Amino acid sequence: MRRKLTFSCINRVKANLKLIDNFKSKKRYYEKLASLDQTFSVFKNPSDTEEFQDCCKSAVIYLRNNTRGNNLVYEENINCGFCKNMLIDKPIGITINLALTIFIILYSWISSGQITAISHKNWFSICINLCFVIFWIFGINKKMFEESAKRYAYTLITAIDSLKAPESED
Fold first, then answer.
1. What CA–CA distance (Å, rounded) separates 60 from 114?
2. Domain locations in the chain as residue ranges
3. HEC string of the chain?
4. Cα 105 from Cα 94, distance rounded (Å)
5. Were both Cys, which of 27, 80, 87, 94 would link to 152 (CB 3.0–4.6 Å)?
6. Contact in structure between 16 and 157 (CB atoms under 8 Å)
7. Can you give the pLDDT of all 170 residues of the chain as single tens digits?
8. In this predicted structure, what is the pLDDT of residue 162?
9. How high is the pLDDT of residue 28?
10. Under 8 Å between Cβ of 88 and 1
């Protein structure tokens, strides 16, 4: 699942590159990419060919490698990775919180002798754990990850403007 979510980030960048609303921005990004590396000359004439798709994949890798110093890209990458990890760890989080809730209930019941004699502190702890279970179930979802991947992709694409063309070796 981790690999599938990583490809989702890359696909999101490719999709955003192709679906930028502003035609002038899209054209500027394509021209900038074409000027950065000779292998990106395909961006001068965008199409739906397999060669163009492969060039998009290559451009994503190029952007990820050459925008490492950009703090905004770095932060969005961290956010995207955090959301991905939360989504992957969702079953573990639910299991741990449910196990702790059951443990607190059983411990409180055994130590007090009856369920109605459980202390307020323990009831508070049970409620907090149940809130975390609800958070894991409803708060951590694929939509959350997709939104963070979309923000990362957009930030990565807009970082194209900050890249400088390599010096020519003439």
1. 61
2. 2-73+153-162
3. CHHHHHHHHHHHHHHHHHCCCCHHHHHHHHHHHHHHCHHHHHHHCCCCCHHHHHHHHHHHHHHHHHCCCCHHHHHHHHHHHHHHHHHHCHHHHHHHHHHHHHHHHHHHHHHHCCHHHCCHHHHHHHHHHHHHHHHHHHHCCHHHHHHHHHHHHHHHHHHHHHCCCCCCCC
4. 17
5. 80
6. yes
7. 555 555 555 566 656 555 565 667 778 888 888 888 888 888 888 778 888 888 888 888 888 888 888 899 999 999 999 999 999 999 999 999 999 999 998 888 888 777 777 788 988 999 999 999 999 999 999 999 999 998 998 898 888 888 876 665 54
8. 85
9. 83
10. yes
With vertex at residue 90, the alpha carbon angle to CA 7 and CA 99, rounded to the nearest 5 degrees, is 160
Specify the long-range contacts of residues 118-126, CB closer than 8 Å, at least 24 apart.
Answer: 126/101
What's the gap between Cα 31 and its chain centre?
A: 27
In terms of Cβ atoms closer than 10 Å to its own Cβ (0-12, 13-18, 19+), residue 52 is middle
Token pair for 54: 């492969």
The token pair that represents 70 in the structure block: 């950009």
CA-angle at 143, arms to 142 and 145, nearest 5°:
65
Residue-level pLDDT at 35: 86
Structure-block tokens of residue 129: 């754990």
